[in-house]
Amino acid sequence: MNLRPDLAAIAEAIAPGARVLDIGCGDGALLANLRDAKQVDARGMEIDGDCVERCVAQGLSVVQGDANRDLADYPDKGFDYTVLSQTLQTATRPDHMLDQLLRVGRQAFVSFPNFAHWRTRSALMFGGKMPVTRAIPVSWYETPNIHHVTVKDFRELAREKGATIEREWFFAGGKPVSGSTNWRAEFAVFQLSR
Amino acid sequence: MAGTSRTLELPQPLALDGGGELVGATLAYETYGELNADRSNAILLCHALTGDQYVASPHPVTGKPGWWERMVGPGKPIDTGRFHVICANVIGSCMGSSGPASEASDGKPYAMRFPVITIRDMTRALVGLLDEIGIDTLHAVVGGSMGGMQALSLAANWPSRAARVLVIASTSRHSAQNIAFHELGRQAVMADPRWNQGDYYGGEAPDNGLAVARMAAHITYLSEEALTEKFGRNLQDREAKSFGFDADFQVESYLRYQGSGFTQRFDANSYLYITRAMDYFDLAEEHGGKLADAFAGTAARFCLVSFDSDWLYPTSESRHVVRALNAAGAAVSFVELSAPHGHDSFLLDVPALDRVVKGFLE
Questions:
Q1: Tell me: the pLDDT tens digits for B155-199?
Q2: Best residue in B301, B333, B337 to probe A by mutation, most A CBs within 10 Å?
Q3: Rounded distance, CA A81 to CA A10, Å?
Q4: Which uninterrupted H or E stretch holds B176?
Q5: Mind listing the domains of chain B with CATH numbers?
Q6: Which of B96, B98, B163 is nearest to B124 (CA)?
Q7: Is A125 exposed, middle or buried (0-12, 13-18, 19+ CB in 10 A)?
C-alpha cells in the first residue's frame, strides 16, 4: 500500500522495532506499514469508531479516544515516537497537544497543511475568500481545521516549547520541495525532541 | 454443532478469597475444535452471570441453541476450525460445576453452607482446569459481562496464561447501581417463603422470588430504546386494559415469560452466590487500590469493547480499564460500538462486534 508522502517520510525515519503511538491514526495505514515493514510496536488513537473498528479488525492496537483529552492517560516517555499527522490543526489547543506529544514520546512527528502556501495566499489575496485548495479542500464552515498554521508559526511554537527540530520535510503536489518552504510547501513534516 | 462435554475434579483444594478452601471442586466444561500439537490454539470463553458452558451446543434443559452460536463455530469469528475453544461452568453455578446445589461431604446439598466466592475464585478454578488439561498459555481469554470480569481477573492475577484478553461489555468493578440491582434480586429470592434460608432442595424451589429477580435484572440488560421498539405500550392479547393486575401490556407478559423460563434452568441459591461474587468484584482493590498496578508488566494484548446503549456497564467503565492499561503500557484496543440492544448487545446481532472479535484473535 502506498503511504501518503508525509506518512512515508515518517515511516522511513522511524527506527525498526521502536514503540510508536500514532494519534489520529485513521484507518491504520501508517501503523500497519510500520508493524509489517519494521516490526514496530505500533499503537494508535482515533476518535472515529468506524476507523477504530477497521484498525482492530486488522489486528492493530488502537484505542477509540479524543486526543485532546485522552493523551493525558499515557505515561511519560512511554513511546519512542509519537506521530500526529494532519491533526494538529484540528486540536482544541495545538500548543497543549504538542506538549503531550513531547511528554508521551521521546521524539514526535508532526505533519500539517501549510496555510502560507502560495495557493492559499493567492486564494485569499485575490479571491478574498477563505481558501479551498487541494491541500485544504473543505469549506470554512465544515472544515475540521480550526487552527490553521504555517511553517513559520510552527517553528515559533516549537521554539517556545523548547523543542528541537531534528528533521523536517516539505511537500507540494506529493513531491519534496526545498527553499522558501513557507511559500512553496503544501505540507510540512517536523521531527521534534525535547 | 456438538461440543464435547467433560467434567473434571480439581486434584488440589481450591483456595478461596474469603478464607478456607473448596475441596473436590468440580468443573463441567465443553470443548469445540481440536487442540493443536503445541497446545497453543486454545481460547477460554468465560460465561456471564446466568450463562453456562453450552456456548455453541444445545442447552440440555431448555433445548435452545448455545448462547454464543452466532460467534463460535467453524468459520465464525471464534473459528473452531482453527481454535480449541473451552468454556466451563463457573463454580457457584448450577450446570455441573460445584455450587450450592452440589453435594457436600455429608451427602446433602451445600445450600447456604457453600462458601461465598469471588470472581477471582471462579477464575482460579478455571486456571486449575487449564493446569489439568495441560494448557500453559491461552491464545486468548474472552468474556462478556461477568465473563469479561473473569478475563480481566485472569490477566491481572495469572498474566502469563493468556496472550490476548478480550473483554466485552464489562467492568473492573461493580458500581453502587450494579450492586443495588443485584441486592433487589437477592431480596426477591430471599423474600420467597420457599427459599427457606436456602434449604429447599428436594422440595419446592423459590421460583417466584427467582423469577422476580430475573425480571428486574432483565430490564437492566435492555435499553429503553429496545424496550420501546419491541413493545411500546402495546397490549397483550387483548383490545383494552383490564383494570386489573393481569399482564395487560406486552412488556409485562414478556418479563413474566423471561422470569418463569429462567427458573426452569437456574438455581436460586446460585443466583445469590454469583451476584454476590460480582458485587465483590473490584480489581483495583485487589491490587492496592490502583487499577494500573493490576496490569503492571503485562505482555498480553487487550481489547475492550463497549456498546453505546449499555447502561449496566457503560462505556465509561471500559474507558476506565483502558486508561489503566495505557498507564501500564499495555497493548490495548478499545472501541465503543453502536448497537440498540443495551447490555445484551454482546449476545445479539452486531456485525461490527464479529469483525472486531475476528480481527483481534488473528
A1: 999 999 999 999 999 999 999 999 999 999 999 999 999 999 999
A2: B333
A3: 10
A4: helix B176-191
A5: 4-173+283-361 (3.40.50.1820), 178-275 (1.10.1740.110)
A6: B98
A7: exposed
Taking each helix axis as running N to C, give the angle between helix B268-280 and helix B207-221, from 0 to 180 degrees, rounded to the nearest 10. Answer: 40
3-state helix, strand, coil in chain A (%, to 5): 40, 25, 35
Q: Look at B327 and A75 and tell me if their CB atoms are within 8 Å.
A: yes
The ipTM (two decimal places) reads 0.90
**In sequence order, which residues have a C-beta less than 8 Å from that of residue B296 and are 6 or more positions away?**
B328
- How many Å is the maximal CA-CA distance in chain A? 49
Residue given cell 516539505 in the structure block: A170
B193 touches chain A (CB under 8 A): no
Calculate how close chain A gets to B134, using CA atoms only, in Å.
27
β-partners of residue B334 are A63, B304
Answer yes or no: do B332 and A63 touch at CB < 8 A: yes
Residue range A5-114+147-193 in CATH 3.40.50.150? yes
pLDDT at A2: 82
Host H or E run for residue A123: helix A118-127
The label of the residue with cell 487541494 reads A134
- Reading the block at residue A50, the C-alpha cell is 468506524
Contact at 8 Å (CB) between A172 and A186?
Answer: yes
Summarised one tens digit per residue, pLDDT across range A111-140 is 999 999 999 999 999 999 999 999 899 999
Please tell me which of A133-137, B1-5, B246-250 the model is most confident about, judged by mean pLDDT. Answer: B246-250
Q: What residue ranges in B195-329 does DSSP mark as E strands?
A: 301-307
